[in-house]
Write a structure and sequence with these properties.
Pfam families: AbiH. The chain is 46% helix and 8% strand. By secondary structure, the chain is of the alpha/beta class.
């Protein structure tokens, strides 16, 4: 287990009773591009950008194919078409969660009422929804993933047993005019984003591994931001000192960015006593404390 509690200096005046809690808004106030949409849209990693573009191109092809002869293509046939597309798609950088969130952004890009996935709170909400059953149909994206994996494994989408009443899906029906609805589009693509076809426990474990990969990608992005040097430290400490009303104070941070604790000016009277990282920090590469 990693210890994310950092004691900066022994406080001879006694422990401070002031606690400064900071989140992503603090980093944004420093001018850092740390919103979720920044991670996707301003990431300059060449491999990351290339895989993101390849995935978007693949989704465009799939979306286009659902509009060709819409009254003749069954959903089972469309599943096979998507499988052929994914044979040429290789993702070594993007995690399942990167692809899943990109898929949701693609589906919702023209929907003004949908979750735009701009902030990290949006991401947390969406991951929770992935595992949480809907009160109306008792389903969620995780169950859809498992169910479609089972269909792929049993090859039931190619003419046999294509109606499943427990999920309210009839795979033999023709594609609606124009395209698949959003739920159909997402359901059929989901299993291709996670190439594991065993049981639920294996899938849970792999989703956790993919979450580590997702957060490592974000860590790599953060490390490219200007989070080192005296200018960063001075600006950071000045903002903290303005927030704190006491000489010694403690910091509780939900951010991955490091809290600079080395005093820039020796005449500075306000000092940090303790720093606690809720999620770990990119500097020590402990993003998900175990």
């Amino acid at each position: 287990m990693s210890d994310n509690n950092v004691k900066v200096k022994e406080n001879k005046q006694g422990d401070s009773d002031t606690l400064v809690i900071i989140g992503n808004g603090f980093d944004l106030s420093l001018g850092l591009k740390t919103r979720f949409q920044d991670y996707f849209d301003k990431n300059k990693n060449n491999d990351f950008v290339q895989e993101k573009e390849n995935f978007n191109d693949l989704l465009n092809k799939i979306s286009k194919d659902t509009t060709i002869n819409p009254n003749k293509i069954s959903k089972g046939q469309m599943f096979e078409t998507i499988e052929n597309y994914f044979k040429d798609f290789n993702s070594t950088i993007l995690s399942f969660w990167d692809l899943y969130l990109l898929l949701l952004r693609y589906i919702n890009k023209n929907n003004t009422n949908s979750n735009k996935l701009e902030d990290w709170s949006d991401v947390e909400t969406q991951i929770k929804r992935f595992f949480t059953e809907n009160n109306e149909n008792k389903s969620n994206d995780f169950n859809k993933l498992i169910w479609t994996q089972e269909l792929r494994k049993g090859k039931q989408l190619y003419g046999y047993g294509e109606h499943d009443s427990s999920h309210g899906i009839n795979w033999t029906q023709t594609v609606p005019n124009s395209s698949f609805d959003k739920d159909d589009f997402k359901r059929i693509i989901l299993p291709f984003l996670l190439e594991i076809q065993n049981n639920k426990n294996d899938t849970y474990n792999e989703l956790l591994n993919q979450l580590n990969k997702f957060e490592q990608n974000f860590s790599n992005y953060i490390l490219k931001l200007p989070i080192k040097g005296d200018d960063y430290s001075e600006c950071y400490q000045n903002k903290l000192n303005k927030i704190s009303e006491s000489t010694w104070y403690n910091v509780l941070t939900f951010n991955y960015t490091p809290v600079p604790t080395k005093t820039i000016f020796t005449c500075e009277v306000k000092r940090i006593n303790h720093v606690r990282y809720i999620h770990g920090t990119v500097v020590d590469k402990k993003i998900i404390p175990l």
